[in-house]
Amino acid sequence: MIHSLFLINASGDIFLEKHWKSVVSQSVCDYFFEAQERASEAENVPPVISTPHHFLLSVYRHKIFFVAVIQTEVPPLFVIEFLHRVVDTFQDYFGVCSEVMIKDNVVVVYEVLEEMLDNGFPLATESNILKELIKPPTILRTVVNTITGSTNVGDQLPTGQLSVVPWRRTGVKYTNNEAYFDVVEEIDAIIDKSGSTITAEIQGVIDACVKLTGMPDLTLSFMNPRLLDDVSFHPCVRFKRWESERILSFIPPDGNFRLLSYHVSAQNLVAIPVYVKHNINFRDSSSLGRFEITVGPKQTMGKTIEGVMVTIQMPKGVLNMSLTPSQGTHIFDPVTKLLTWDVGKINSQKLPSLKGSMNLQAGTSKPDENPTINLQFKIQQLAISGLKVNRLDMYGEKYKPFKGIKYMTKAGKFQVRT
């Protein structure tokens, strides 16, 4: 299926390549570089590029392009999902997935890739199974390997690979039995100048950290499961039970894993948690402009909005800005024309505002369109879709585990037009 994998940094250098079936020349990436030049941003590079003899499928994460080369037509999402698994595995192994970290641990990277794909087909993609096969690097292990010439490859096959539950190893034991679930929702929205919602959708995930002894069988039920649309499950979830009863029934992997990801796109279901009042005026004849924005909470169910960051790409004609924030700090870069305002926490009693004037280049005409306001924020203990976990039950083991569920909402691509 996958012939080769190339890792390309933001500068366009191939810093790592791995081949499974046959060696594919680096020149195949020229088609990718052409597409990269045509794209205005790295995120806009087409994920599937057709060449005369190959298909190039890529994902862009952590400022690295992961480009897979295939020769026969396969479902593209199959390959893209595998590439995301590769990134997640590197992040789990090394703490961060960066060019420096991959170069520093190049031997482990090759060992992991060799286990994840067998002759071009996915074999072991579960992180906890891989960690039994290939030990994660530590300073002590690296020193020992350097002296003795040994590798991080384990001595025996993981027990999970031989069982009917390949994502969980046998004989797991913990003194404290705990299961934690994080419901994280990211809201993407475009708001027009009058405050009406043009588009809004929610991408949600439920991440789990399960440290339970033995072979527990869990069921997780929701107050309102019909909210969930376009759901993608971890292989451990029994799909038929979900289809018939809308209950998640599964034997969990050991440790951290993503239980499911979902999408809420129905316009009427997406609540907008913040609003922005804005008054950005450019006058035709004057070299001065007026700037004023205020940020406030909208539908937050009484929760506090934290970590608010406002960024605005100002027009080229703006030379300088003289602004006063009621809270937080702001920076305007006169070279890139980027205004950044670090607001922090929103106090609903005294709303944060940023007011002042803009110095415009003499003789320039009024900009064709006003700038777009980009917002970043997070709200703890709130799932903006209204999703709520009803209960979590455990079968198959006698002990009583400690269970915890956290909710969080954060901004994805959240834009307000002025």
Automatic annotation (TrEMBL):
One matching Pfam family is Adap_comp_sub
Can you give the residue ranges of the MHD domain?
176-417
Q: Which UniProt keywords apply?
A: Cytoplasmic vesicle, Golgi apparatus, Membrane, Protein transport, Transport
Recorded GO CC terms:
axon cytoplasm; clathrin adaptor complex; cytoplasmic vesicle membrane; GABA-ergic synapse; glutamatergic synapse; Golgi apparatus; presynapse
Q: Give yes or no: UniProt keyword Protein transport.
A: yes
Q: Where would you find this protein in the cell? A: Golgi apparatus; Cytoplasmic vesicle membrane
GO biological process terms held by the UniProt record: anterograde synaptic vesicle transport; intracellular protein transport; synaptic vesicle endocytosis
Query: What CDD domains does its record include?
Result: AP3_Mu_N (cd14837)
User: Can the keyword Transcription be found in this entry's annotation?
Assistant: no
Broad class of the protein's primary localization: Golgi
Q: Identify its membrane topology class.
A: Peripheral membrane protein
Give the similarity note: Belongs to the adaptor complexes medium subunit family.
Provide the protein name.
AP-3 complex subunit mu-2
Q: Which organism is it from?
A: Coturnix japonica (Japanese quail)
Gene behind this protein: AP3M2
